[in-house]
Design brief:
This protein has about 140 residues and is an all-alpha fold. The protein is about 70% helix and about 5% strand. It has a two-stranded antiparallel ribbon with strand order 1-2. Helix 1 crosses helix 3, helix 2 crosses helix 3 and helix 4 packs antiparallel against helix 5. Keywords: Membrane, Transmembrane, Transmembrane helix.
């Protein structure tokens, strides 16, 4: 079976790779933010790698853990954008795609790419750039 001349297996492997890549990016973003706030980056990395909801809960409530010692680096900004952009693309793809796993794969990949760019623009404005960080 092919979609636009590309075997379905290729779409599946790309979908799986981007899914796990976005999970890794979320783990990195949560860990780096927790480390900058002094609340145990390794602990939050372990929790975020196993369970999605505590990672999202930390991200939602991160301001209650105090202020960051330093601003986010460029790599951390990129990881946040990938995590939320790809995750949002999958969620939106599940909402707008007709029912079926193949259409979910076809819809969610482009939405994830667009979502990553939008997330980078939106999340990049949360903190002013620090002159000594983000290289």
């Amino acid at each position: 079976m092919e979609i636009y001349g590309i075997p379905v297996v290729v779409f599946g492997w790309v979908w799986i790779a981007t899914f796990f890549g976005s999970v890794f990016a979320l783990v990195y973003a949560v860990s780096a933010d927790a480390r900058a706030r002094g609340v145990g980056g390794s602990l939050w990395a372990g929790i975020a790698s196993l369970l999605l909801f505590p990672a999202l809960w930390y991200w939602w409530r991160r301001g209650t853990y105090g202020v960051r010692e330093y601003g986010p680096t460029t790599r951390e900004r990129q990881a946040r954008a990938v995590a939320f952009g790809i995750g949002g693309g999958y969620f939106l793809g599940a909402m707008v795609a007709p029912p079926g796993p193949i259409t979910l794969i076809v819809y969610s990949l482009p939405l994830g790419i667009v979502g990553t760019v939008v997330a980078y623009v939106i999340l990049g404005r949360q903190y002013p750039r620090h002159p000594n960080h983000g290289r």
